[in-house]
Write a structure and sequence with these properties.
This protein is of the alpha/beta class and 417 residues long. The protein folds into three domains: 94 residues, OB fold (Dihydrolipoamide Acetyltransferase, E2P); 80 residues, no CATH class; 190 residues, Vaccinia Virus protein VP39 (Rossmann fold). The chain contains nine helices and 22 strands. The strands form four sheets. It has a nine-stranded mixed β-sheet, with helices on both faces. A six-stranded mixed β-sheet has the order 1-5-6-4-3-2, with no helix packed on it. A five-stranded antiparallel β-sheet has the order 10-9-8-11-12. Helix 5 links the parallel strand 15 and strand 16.
């Protein structure tokens, strides 16, 4: 019998096996006793697995809503308020590991813990008994597929459309082995786009969707990057906007532009994105801003400034009645000369966090405010520790973008010491 100590940032529960090896288990909660478990990964210093028999269940344990919960949302086993409290504790622990002591952050949610995902990718399973295709997920910790009959983490319109596509494939006698997966995305109005990825063929280009964020309309591809939970994302944007206090704003890792354009379209705003498809959507979203109030055309830019930064193939500037918006196709760490002291700098990097060259430049130039939104608090804490040479934490808030999962979105506001 193994006693569960606590939850860790990966979402598993921590215990110690009889041989002294650390054991990370899904389907277990702090305080519970694990009687039986299945190993899914065995390393020299630790093992990962799934608890299969529990004694002394936690008072915070609840029955999961979905049979497939371990694959999609392994925290369905706990009370929602307990989930929120655990995420607060995880943020404190993550920052403590980087020698940063913080108070318990406020955690912000819209209290909708199911049917919130606006994007889902399904595997396809071939049922040899019925000779038909079924929607499927991969079992956690393996490449094995298993069929599903329901799923409650994505918006209902997505699952309904997925079943329609599977029914159509079966009516035509198709086989699952022809397809890699089924990707579908849904906007806030319930319109669904996406489709099947075939094996050994380029991914198709699906019809774009549009959504309004804080009243502004944005266009995006179902295949590309866009926020999964828009209602909670809007709550984060409202919080970010409170901290944009300078006329100049630099939005790094801008994606399709939803942060910068939502909170600083009335400023001298520069958006930087390296992915070409996301940049194309960013440029389109600039032209859609405020019902096309922009005058002029793309192409004008500050040649003197451009000569001091690496050349790129996507510089654009638009001037509106509100402000000047520029967009740059480049890596954020390659446009360091755009960082200025009298700026607000917005960071929303991928899970790997910020490039060290960028962190060093921020410490050197000392822009007034840094707004750092992260989907990986571990790399965020690593970066923030380096920035504390020059800055202090003015605010920290956690957003539950991904209910019923261990994933956390964390916002840090840094101001000069």
């Amino acid at each position: 019998m193994l006693k569960i100590e606590k939850l860790i940032p990966g979402g598993q529960a921590l215990t110690t096996a009889k041989n002294g090896k650390k054991l990370f288990l899904f389907q277990a909660l702090p305080g519970e006793n694990v009687v039986e478990y299945q190993i899914t990964k065995d390393k020299s210093s630790y093992s990962e697995g799934i608890a299969t028999k529990i004694e002394n269940p936690s008072p915070f344990r609840v029955d999961p809503k979905d049979a497939c919960f371990l694959s999609t949302s392994p925290w369905q086993i706990m009370d929602y308020d307990y989930e929120l409290a655990q995420k607060q504790e995880l943020i404190i622990e993550i920052f403590r590991e980087h020698q940063i002591n913080i108070e318990k952050p406020e955690i912000i949610t819209d209290h909708k813990d199911y049917f919130y995902r606006n994007k889902m990718e399904y595997a396809l399973f071939w049922d040899h008994n019925t000779n038909k295709i079924e929607l499927a997920f991969h079992a956690r910790g393996s490449h094995r597929k298993f069929p599903i009959k329901s799923s409650s983490i994505e918006r209902p319109e997505i699952f309904t459309r997925a079943k329609e596509i599977i029914n159509d494939l079966n009516s035509r006698g198709e086989e699952a082995r022809k397809y890699q997966s089924l990707l579908l995305r849904c906007n806030q109005n319930g319109e669904v786009s996406g489709g099947l990825y075939e094996n050994h063929k380029p991914h198709p280009i699906f019809k774009n969707l549009t959504d309004k964020i804080l009243g502004q309309e944005y266009s995006y591809s179902p295949n590309g990057f866009f926020q999964i939970n828009l209602p909670v994302y809007e709550l984060a944007l409202k919080e970010i906007k409170k901290h944009v206090t300078t006329d100049k704003v630099l939005d790094l890792y801008a994606g399709v532009g939803t942060i910068g354009l939502s909170v600083a379209s009335d400023k001298n705003l520069t958006l930087v994105e390296v992915d070409k498809s996301a940049f194309a959507e960013l440029v389109k979203n600039c032209t859609m801003l405020d019902n096309n109030v922009f005058r002029g055309r793309f192409g004008g830019y500050d040649r003197e400034r451009e000569e001091r930064a690496p050349r790129n193939d996507g510089r654009a500037r638009l001037r509106s009645e509100k402000g000047i918006i520029s967009s740059i196709l480049n890596k954020s760490e390659n446009v360091l000369n755009y960082i200025e002291p009298d700026q607000t700098v917005i960071l929303d990097p991928p899970r790997a966090g910020c490039d060290r060259k960028l962190i060093d430049k921020l410490n050197e130039v000392k822009p007034k405010t840094i707004i750092y939104l992260s989907c990986n608090p571990a790399t965020q804490a690593r970066d923030v520790k380096l920035l504390l040479e020059t800055y202090q934490i003015a605010d920290i808030k956690t957003f539950n973008f991904f209910p019923r999962t261990p994933h956390i979105e964390n916002l840090i506001i840094l101001r000069q010491k």
